[in-house]
Design goal:
five-stranded mixed sheet, WH-like_DNA-bd_sf, Nucleotidyltransferase, domain 5, alpha/beta, Arc Repressor Mutant, subunit A, 384 residues, WH_DNA-bd_sf
Amino acid sequence: MGGSAGDLVRLVAKGHGRSRAELARLSGMAPSSVSLRVEELIEAGLLREDGEGASRGGRRPRQLRLHENAGVVVAVDVGTHHVRMAVLDLAGRVLLEHELPGEIAEGPERVIERLLDNLRMTLRQAEVEHLPLLGVGIGMPGPVDPGAAKVVAPSRMPGWNDFPIGRRMSELLGVRVVVENDANLMAVGEHRYGWPDRDNLMAVKAGTGIGCGIIVSGRLHRGRGAAGDISHVPVHVPEPVTCSCGHSDCLEAHASGAALRRILRAQGIEVSSSRHLVDLVNDGVPEATTLVRNAGRLAGQVLVPLVNFFNPDVLVLGGGLSAAEPFVAAVRGAIYERCLPLATRDLEIATAVTGRDACMLGAGSLVLDEVLASEWVDDTLAAR
């Protein structure tokens, strides 16, 4: 670990360095140098020191924490029919969250206009307008080029292809903006807040679409932007349906919430959302239950070779369809039936611990990582 002021702030933010002695041990810096830097950070309003920690035989150490007035970030989960937004402090604590209606099909300009209005309203409601906004993390329901911070070749998102939402939002707000696929963010959120001690995790988000995020050795694995995209993996089906990609046997064309709603509509049953579909299952509507169970079987069919190949510690099921027990049971059944015993021996298959907040929390985590890894700390000290 290095010895810069930013390194010390990151150690405190992650909860590793709770005292000056711990910071000296973890950073490799001399205790006197740590004390000098900590005093600078306290005077700059980035850290505070209060309370008392556990004693190791001498005087009980004072506890270090990020100052609540140092700044905030905003996390945004843009769904097909909703926007979830939260304000987080620099320790990752959620200060305020809420959900608002929104249609991704309205196009990027209208969605950005709504996001800006909602963001300002959220900061007011959280009563933190006076604090520096340091960054925004945005989750999108489609493939994302993380380097360019833009959506690439999405389905059901007219006008979004190659749209540079990250650059546009950063220009309008004057802060750094991180953009990521929602399934990747679900994986990050579940790992950070739900399974912090499990370093190899797969998170499947099954809602209007189907995606998967992968945590390898504690870090999000993006590949070159398409890692974890299971939506266009072929499945064995009796009746082909043309997918947006042009193929007829893609998982998403047969097992996503959008696909199931299309099938039910053809049967005369109108379904407004994945949540409505789950309500029909819970109400015992046989057509809905059969379709959801088959969707879980198809998803399990795709996941079997991936679980054998990756051998994760945890497989997390999230998104709207994960609230339907027949879907979850069918995924579990396929995996335990077809995977190698060694691959499932210690595997946990669970629904998302963080529930509908997973993507939002993941967005907050990634933008906090970006802020704390940036020159922000040095700039704040230089501006004193």
